[in-house]
Amino acid sequence: MSEVKLNVWFEPLPESMRKSPLVFVTRWHIPKENHDKMAEIVTGSIDVGLDTQRMHPGSLFYSRTRHWFRPEEDGKTEEWWFMDEYDSAEAFEAMQKAVKGIFAGPGAEELRAHHQQLLDLMVPGTTLEPILYSEIESARIEFEPYKIRAAALERAAAVAQKTQKK
Predict the structure, then answer these.
(1) What is the CATH number of the domain that holds 113?
(2) Domain assignment present for 127
(3) Domain count within the chain
(4) Domain coverage including residue 47
(5) In this structure, is residue 91 part of a structural domain?
(6) Per residue in 48-75, pLDDT tens?
(7) Residue pLDDT, tens place only, 64-112
(8) Residue 82's closest CA among 98, 100, 64?
């Protein structure tokens, strides 16, 4: 059994990372046969995990969270990771402080047990690997507005075509 460790960023943020949105990523590796069980644990329950986050979005400081996996070359393991997006350094720091407080406060045992379930499914010898990235905002493109505009133009063209046939 692995020791449950906090998945938080302990170092102060460098000044260069305080000016733009942040992405906090954590990676880990599991045996392929643990895929379904890992998905169940990641989703959580009514008390911990993503279900709780869906029910109480106001208690979170990040604007988006997502999970991914990919088969590894050996065919026996998968790499999993999640990504939490933060709109500011202040939001990130507030979430990190909250996580530390949760692990130290009432209900910490349930949270530790949830994390222990995750650790027990991991490939022996691997760990949770937290990584923090700062966005290069000038390289951002939001495609959703383009999709909406393209759909509107298609509808307008279809209406115009029907009007011309009359």
Answers:
(1) 3.30.70.100
(2) yes
(3) 1
(4) 15-140
(5) yes
(6) 555 566 666 666 788 888 889 999 999 9
(7) 888 899 999 999 999 999 899 999 999 988 888 877 777 787 777 877 7
(8) 64
